[in-house]
Amino acid sequence: MAGPIFQIIRSHARKDARELGLNLLRVFSSRMILWGLAGAIVSGIIYSSCNNNKASRIGQQPIQISEISNAITAYSLESKIDPFILLAIADNESKFNDYAISSIGAAGAFQLMPDVADSLGLKVYDLESFKQAVVLDDDRYIIRNPELLNQYIRNLKKNISGKSKKELARVDQRFVYHIAADAAARHIDENLNKGLSLEQAIAAYYAGPSLARQTPFRSDINTYVTNVKDSYEKFKKSYAN
Q1: Listed range (34-38, 140-144, 148-152, 164-168) with the worst mean pLDDT
Q2: What is the pLDDT of residues 21-76, one digit of tens each?
């Protein structure tokens, strides 16, 4: 489960996107040239998406376009997950805001839940307090102690505020884009390896593998999958053009 989205970001200058395209072409080997080009177009898409949104931030370091697109391209390539799938998920989860925190404790651009992030090997802030506040029952998160959950979220926000990426990595790696992108790609890959279709793997990202296997999808799951697929097609079309 990835959780709802609450905040969106604004990007840096378009110059970053242009420079990224050139850098990717230099870095990738000849057999990866197409992926380098994909990384460049990812930058442009992120620039456009972020620049069109006006939600407030909470005082953290601005996100670099190159950091986002490098992470998505590199870890998609490593796991063989289509980079535009990751792009579509980050878009729907947080509008690329790697400081987003949901009311249930999902965090980062990919809105990873604390227990999911922990299972993927990420450092997670005060996991024990979260587990005391929220329990997982058959892919469903149940709030056992609302007051403790609210305190967990308040403390989490306080501990990430104003932190550099290096400092964030010591607090909660869900807020470090390249680490979160890697985890999201592996999370999707794990579900594909369990025999789920890509559509089911997207559903599982939102609601867990058990509910993802149930057809037809529950209404909110179907809406999420549809939105991710729409974003995917939009980004692919932008690349094709």
Answers
A1: 34-38
A2: 333 333 333 333 334 444 444 555 454 455 444 332 333 334 444 555 565 666 55
**Which domain does 107 fall in, by range?**
14-240
Bond into 216 cis (ω within 30): yes
CATH assignment at residue 198: 1.10.530.10
Up-side HSE of residue 61: CA atoms within 13 Å toward CB? 14
Provide φ and ψ at 38, rounded to 5°: -60, -40
Question: How many other CB atoms sit within 10 Å of the CB of residue 145?
Answer: 14
The structure tokens listed for 139 are 């892919």
Contact 211, 221 (CB under 8 A): yes
Condensed to tens digits (0 to 9), the pLDDT of residues 107-132 reads 999 999 999 999 999 999 999 999 99
For 126, the 3-state DSSP assignment is: coil
Q: Is 5 a domain residue? A: no
Domain assignment present for residue 69? The answer is yes
Nearest alpha carbon to residue 73 among 60, 87, 61: 87
In degrees and rounded to multiples of 5, residue 42 shows phi and psi of -55, -45
- Rounded to whole angstroms, how far apart are CA atoms 38 and 129? 40
Rounded CA-CA distance 234/112 in Å is 24
pTM: 0.74
| Distance in angstroms (rounded) separating the CA atoms of residues 186 and 78 | 9
Which residue from 198, 191, 189, 190 is spatially nearest to 229, judged by alpha carbons?
Answer: 198
